[in-house]
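Hi, can you check this record?
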Amino acid sequence: MPDSSVFLITGASTGIGAATARHAAAAGHRLVLAARSEDKLEALAAELPEAIAVRCDVTEWDDQQAVVEKALDAYGRIDVVFANAGFGAPRGFTKSDVGHWREMVLTNVYGAALTVRATIDHLKKTRGHLLLTGSVAGRRALPGSLYSCTKWAVTAMGEAARQELNGTGVRVTLIEPGMVDTPFFDDAVEGGLEADDIARAVMYAVSQPAHVDVNEILIRPIGQDT
């Protein structure tokens, strides 16, 4: 990717999204940062050399389109898209609140799909790169975990997008973290990965030569047994 490339990240205000933004900026990318938390997003954009912050609820199609429009207004192109927005819920089919469940499914699955829909034509123009945040939980089912079900859907989405984009020059990568110590969890994760670990995996995929398509990166901390 050239230094002038434009890197769009959803769920960019904290955790993996924010860490990836910092690594991408250090690599010379221009940033489009999208999330619901405006204050954190603006603070992050202010510390990076070339970044714009756009409030976005990924479950809202108008918001997704607005992010793309602002990216094009600011930079004229989109080269890398990281559909990263998502959150979890307690395990157990009688746990959590059904409203929380609904928002999680909409964010993790529908929101990711809307990001793909909003950016796919622009990625074709630049022969760019689409990345999605999956999970180890999207490779093996966890007991009573609806979150795991949403990440199985993202695993399928990554492969479905790869097949649709085959022949266009667009690369597709599914990033599948294990336990990561981020605001995703209410309590600190001992022995887990750090957000920077995942960001480096993202940048590894993005930095490969144009003919190399890293389809999946499954990354666990040493000792994780699931």
